[in-house]
Amino acid sequence: MQDISKPPAVGVSRRDALLGSLTAGIAAGLPAVAAAKTPMQPLPATINHGKQAMSTITTKDGTEIYYKDWGTGPVVTFSHGWPLNSDAWDGQMLFLAQHGFRVVAHDRRGHGRSSQPTSENDMNGYADDLAAVIEALDLRDATLVGHSTGGGEVARYIGRHGTKRVAKAVLIAAVPPVMVKSATNPEGLPIEAFDAIRAGLVKDRSQFYRDLALQFYGANRPGSNVSQGTLDQFWLWSMQAGLLNAYECVKAFSETDFTEDLKKFDVPTLVLHGEDDQIVPVKDSAVKSARLIKGAKDIYYPGAPHGITATHQDQVNADLLAFLKA
């Protein structure tokens, strides 16, 4: 090991000089960045309850479900959209952990860091996995938050497991009541649209996800300022999902009818949706869900896309916090 109390015997190498310049440049920019990004209040010292930051539970069928559990206080759970994972919620989780909440999010089976089973890749299975996480951590009086497919997961959880452990619910750009067009849902999207998604996955899922990201965040709209980093992030998360699991999930989020589940909501519910959602059209989802859920409060973001948790993060966080404290 080099004695750092003595100067090196040889001159500084070109590589060391470059690294030194880079480090100095980064350091010079840190004060301004820190000033701009300083949180409203510091993270609690017990942000992980003294537990490992990475944890898993094992469900009855042997599937390992990854979850993260940050902060202390009233509980908020998060169910992510297809084909992402719990990291998609980090902007909300960090914010709420900083504001006195305990936040828990899991990777859906077949997605992210959870294992990739060949069974129960449907809404009943997803809801039961959410129940397994809630029961394993003994979460009570929780607010269940779901985005897109995750909103369907929350709805089916309440439909199957009730609200004995639930205080409130939030559906963000969520798929309920039902996406696919049928005789009873003539405003829905034709089955051919979902067949095209499946075909895209099989042909070249990597390119399919890159193309989907543009619509997901509205980056294909004039004047969009969505960063390349956000688009790359979507691709990275999507590629972590198993092909079989992502493929089967398309049927789950598009063809499952959540109408009866929504009618069972008996807790305060917030519905958030972007009016320019190209993935889950607002008129056939949030507008209908808000009518089916007794006493639901609905908020619509003009011109906003499907991925509002990222593109409108500050606004979503503010609306969540206000609802949680109400």
Automatic annotation (TrEMBL):
- Care to name a GO molecular-function term for this sequence? peroxidase activity
Which Pfam families does this entry report, sorted A to Z? Abhydrolase_1 (PF00561)
Keyword list (alphabetical) reads: Oxidoreductase, Peroxidase
Keyword Oxidoreductase present in the record's keywords: the answer is: yes
The record places domain AB hydrolase-1 at 74-213
Q: Which family does it belong to?
A: Belongs to the AB hydrolase superfamily. Bacterial non-heme haloperoxidase / perhydrolase family.
Name of the protein in its database record? Non-heme chloroperoxidase
